[in-house]
Amino acid sequence: MACCSFERSVDRQFGEKNARRQLRRYHRRGIGGTARMLLAGLAKARLTEGTVLDVGAGIGSLTFELLEQGVERAVIVEASAAYADAVTSEATRRGRASAVRVFRGDFLDVAAELPSAAIVTLDRVVCCYPRYEELLATALERAEHGFALSYPRERWYMRAAMALANVLLRTTSGFRTFVHPEGAMRRLIEQAGFELVNHAHNMAWSADVFVRRASMAGRAHDIGL
User: Fold this and answer.
1) Is 42 among the domain residues?
2) Is 75 a member of any domain?
3) Residue 225 counted as domain residue
4) Cα-based distances in Å from 149 to 38, 69, 91, 120, 136
5) How many domains are contained in the chain?
6) Which residues of the chain register pLDDT less than 50?
7) Which residue range is the domain that position 64 belongs to?
8) What is the mean pLDDT of the chain?
């Protein structure tokens, strides 16, 4: 993926107007459906301490909720300049500026600069990358204990919806979305040393939480395994 063309398409699709709308919605209604599923799964797995690396964080709603639940520090990576600015403003408004560090850019381009974290999250991110294998492998390298992601379900109606969306996006932002094979993604994560501990879904999206096997012994009893 060419970094500059990707970031341009992201900025066109996720601009300042969308960032303001997402912030207003978050303030009124709280976190969205996939973030809510991930947050519940992380809480069940006792993965709400230490640090979080939130890849493609949007306005940062999942990160802010994790900070409220016990996470101490957060690193956010966001390709959209408007959304990165929204995260910074919201962190300041919440008195969390010292706990949140924001990197603006394509995760694959800035990954070498990023620290490892207790938890790595990707909420509605994998569907934005054609090369999901590289994205997941790079993110998994930085996950010390937990890894959580949401993704569109591999169903005919989601493929149809994404295909229609891509037709419309081609004439506006040039941004594209993808429905990747669920089984292949899970195998890649498991081969990296993680085990699925929580799966949730609605009609359109799935949300999975994994724990690194080396961390399982101390958590198995707590999370009911």
Assistant:
1) yes
2) yes
3) no
4) 7, 18, 22, 8, 10
5) 1
6) 1-3
7) 3-215
8) 90
